[in-house]
Write a structure and sequence with these properties.
Number of strands: 3
Number of domains: 1
Strand order of the largest sheet: 1-2-3
CATH architecture: 2-Layer Sandwich
Number of helices: 4
Strand content: 15-25%
CATH topology: GMP Synthetase, Chain A, domain 3
Oligomer: single chain
C-alpha cells in the first residue's frame, strides 16, 4: 500500500466523511521522483461543526501520527464542514511554492 493509500484508509476509518481528497504534492518539492513525502489533505466532515481549526488539525495529526513520524515531511490540511466547503465554492486553497532545498 502506498503512503497516499495509507493516509486515505486511516482517514476513512477514523472520521465520518462527506468528502476526502489526498493529493501527493511531493513533485513540487526538492525530492526524488516518485516520492511520497508532501501531501495536501482536504477533509469535509459534519464532525468538524463547532470545532476550532486547531482541534480539527490535532485530530487529523493524531490519526496520521505514524506517517508524520516517518515518511511524511509535510502535511497541509484543509478541514471543513459541508457548509464551509459550500461557502468556498468547492475550491481548495492553492499550496505555496516550495522555497527549500535546491528550489529557492
Amino acid at each position: 500500500m502506498t503512503v497516499q493509500e495509507t493516509i486515505e484508509q486511516k482517514l476513512v476509518d477514523a472520521v465520518p466523511l462527506v468528502g476526502l481528497e489526498v493529493i501527493n504534492e511531493s513533485h513540487m518539492h526538492n525530492v526524488p521522483p516518485g516520492s511520497e513525502s508532501h501531501f495536501k489533505v482536504v477533509i469535509i466532515s459534519d464532525e468538524f461543526k463547532d470545532v476550532r481549526l486547531i482541534q480539527r488539525h490535532q485530530r487529523i495529526n493524531k490519526v496520521l501520527a505514524d506517517e508524520l513520524a516517518g515518511s511524511v515531511h509535510a502535511l497541509a490540511l484543509q478541514t471543513l464542514t459541508p457548509d464551509e466547503w459550500k461557502a468556498k465554492g468547492g475550491e481548495t486553497m492553492p499550496s505555496p511554492l516550495c522555497l527549500g532545498g535546491g528550489k529557492g
